[in-house]
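Hi everyone, sorry if this is the wrong subforum. Our group has a chain we'd like a structural model of before ordering constructs, and none of us has done structure prediction before. Sequence below.
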Amino acid sequence: MTNRKVLVVDDERDALEILAYNLKQEGYEPFLAEDGEAALRLAAQHQPSVILLDIMMPGIDGLELCRRLRSLPETRESYIIFLTARSEEVAELAGFEAGADDFIVKPIRPRAILSRLKALSRRATPMHKLQFPGLEIVPEEYSVHKQGEVIPLSKKEFELLFVLASKPYKYFSRDTLLERIWGTDSYVIPRTVDVHIRKLREKIGMEYIETLKGVGYRFVPEPVKAQS
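Answer:
Right subforum, don't worry. Here is the predicted structure as tokens:
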């Protein structure tokens, strides 16, 4: 992770100061916001590589803020981690629907967050362009080029597609995909994969990702269309 800028958004000042101190000690450059409006301004100005975002905030809540951050060109590719006391499955799925990449449940443990950031750096390995008939997967853009149309993806959507497309026709289980993309120390549930698969299909087309019940998912580079 070459960009060491981290935006922390939380309406609890004490939590912000604790995280800021620990981030600075590890060489990160933290920016702090206590509400959604301030967060949007700082995000557009500084283009952080990581955003730590509380869900339960007055005014613009974390879910809506995440959606807005994903719509900004400056933060479309930022890694967004929700910090929340809400550990229910529905809250997590809502977070991923809004565009989050990961989840950390409060109370906040700075060392755990720093460990997660270091894991992100270790997983940031170079990816090469993948080309298939009518479809091109472009890592530097986090996008898919489909018959001349550029389709932008979130980081996690792209990483999921890249793993599948790197081994065409090979089935990957949900557990394998969770470990490959989110890591073993990440707080995510198996249905997280299903949510991202559905969003991928909506963007690139249903025909490219097949499901085998009880086994997993696979990428089909030359899908067979049904005969009329």
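For your construct planning: The longest helix spans residues 110-123. The chain has eight helices and eleven strands.
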